[in-house]
Design a protein that fits this description.
19 helices, two-stranded antiparallel ribbon, 2 strands, mainly alpha
């Protein structure tokens, strides 16, 4: 028997599938966090706060409106843990992994969605990359969890140390920024703890490099080569991390609210930790609100740049920034081609980089204006919050806890768009493209 339905099946493009998948995880997670079982006895969580927290966890941001360590029960914290893992690796990555385990064939359409999810240019080798993503992630998180467990077992019961180790390993590797220390202190308790700082920074850097780069680094002993993508990501990550640490160290050296009371080695350690955190982790060992305004503004710039494509981080991405710098240098030298590491890039890369950057700037501009109209706070504090939400960083100068309902909705949308990317979101919202049947005549303009 054949049933004829009066409607046609809805066909979603890869971008729409990606957006819908993240939205489903967020709304499911918000419902679970909203349940009384997720909050400690005597405390209730409004749905808007549950939605905000679920969005922050799934979009691996780390902005919080309630204290994770004291407000949520173990059930609520484990819900957050799963959302961070799903959000960091991507729901399609996890779905594909389960399909591989049960030996289900991966369709072409699913490969296209995976390509979009991991910011790949083609679907060649995408299933193998998915396998590597899961394996590498579990190995890195397991090693870090053991390291944290050993360290924290000296100051808390072993069972709690294991729990803390697993939670923070997943949070840091996925650049989520959630912690369980209570009192909204983040990791300020360990500003001078070399072991905790180093393990945390390694996790954040590995998560921010992206799975493509990690895969190539692991295979480097066999292949003895790195792609242009990996060379750019590795070199710029190192440069921006050192630059950020130097600038923060200089600006905050005598600031008694942050670095002033620390010894010289601890100041260097704290400077590097805050710089690494700007890649997208949202963890801090000093009070962000206590930083000098010059430091805070510089941090906004680094948060806007973000991490690498196909990573757990956000921002416009390091490669986009590299292409923009290459395009500027090419123009100043009156060269036609953008050349990086002796490779010429096609014009489509420059066009995409400019599009991503301008759309991101416009988005931050709009969100900042909306927050200025609805929140009674300083311009820099609001701009910092907007950039942090867009870059899925999670650092805050204290505005998150004081947001109105309107402000929370604006930041929720910002985190969602920041995790997907403005271009992906634009593709998801626009109607199906039609092929152009003609071209307009070429025009000329004066620029500059």
């Amino acid at each position: 028997m054949v049933l004829n339905f009066p409607w046609k099946p809805i066909r979603l493009n890869p971008q729409q599938t990606l957006a819908l998948g993240f939205a489903v995880i967020i709304f499911l997670g918000s419902f679970l966090l909203w349940l009384p079982i997720s909050s400690v006895e005597g405390r209730t969580l409004s749905y808007i706060d549950a939605l905000f927290t679920a969005t922050s966890a799934t979009c691996v941001t780390g902005l919080i409106v309630v204290d994770t360590g004291t407000h949520f029960t173990y059930f609520g914290q484990i819900v957050l843990l799963f959302m961070m893992q799903l959000g960091g690796l991507g729901f399609m990555t996890m779905t594909t992994w389960f399909a591989i385990v049960v030996r289900k064939r991966i369709s072409l359409r699913e490969k296209l969605v995976l390509k979009e999810s991991l910011n790949q240019t083609n679907i060649e080798g995408i299933v193998r990359l998915i396998k590597n993503v899961i394996i590498y992630s579990l190995i890195v998180e397991s090693i870090a969890a053991v390291c944290f467990t050993i360290r924290w077992s000296f100051e808390m019961p072993f069972g709690k140390a294991v729990y803390f180790g697993v939670f923070h390993a997943v949070s840091l590797f996925n650049n989520a920024g959630f912690e369980l220390f209570g009192g909204f202190r983040n990791m300020t308790l360990y500003v001078d703890d070399i072991f905790i700082n180093v393990v945390s920074m390694v996790l954040v850097i590995l998560g921010g490099l992206g799975f493509i780069v990690l895969s190539e680094l692991i295979d480097y002993s066999k292949t003895r080569r790195l792609s242009l993508h990996s060379k750019i990501v590795l070199s710029l990550t190192a440069f921006l991390t050192v630059l950020g640490a130097v600038v923060i160290f200089i600006f905050e050296y005598t600031n008694m609210h942050t670095f002033g009371a620390l010894s010289l080695p601890d100041k260097i350690l704290a400077a590097f930790f805050q710089s690494v955190s700007l890649r997208s982790s949202g963890t801090n060992t000093v009070d962000i609100a206590g930083l000098r305004q010059a430091t805070q503004f510089f941090m906004i710039v680094l948060m806007f740049i973000g991490a690498a494509p196909g990573s757990t981080g956000g921002g416009i991405k390091i490669t986009t920034f590299a292409i923009l710098i290459g395009a500027v240098l090419a123009m100043l030298r009156r060269k036609e081609d953008v050349v990086l590491f002796r490779f010429r890039l096609g014009q489509e890369y420059t066009h995409r980089a400019i599009t991503v950057t301008l759309m991101s700037l416009l988005l931050i501009f709009i969100v900042t204006m909306l927050l200025l109209a609805t929140q009674e706070h300083s311009f820099l504090m609001i701009l910092f919050e907007a950039a942090s939400a867009f870059g899925t960083v999670g650092l805050s100068m204290g505005l998150t806890l004081q947001l109105t309902i309107t402000g929370k909705i604006v930041i929720i949308l910002m985190m969602f768009i920041g995790r997907l990317g403005p271009v992906t979101m634009a593709y998801a919202l626009q109607p199906k493209n039609k092929k152009e049947l003609f071209h307009y005549p070429e025009g000329k303009m004066i620029i500059g």
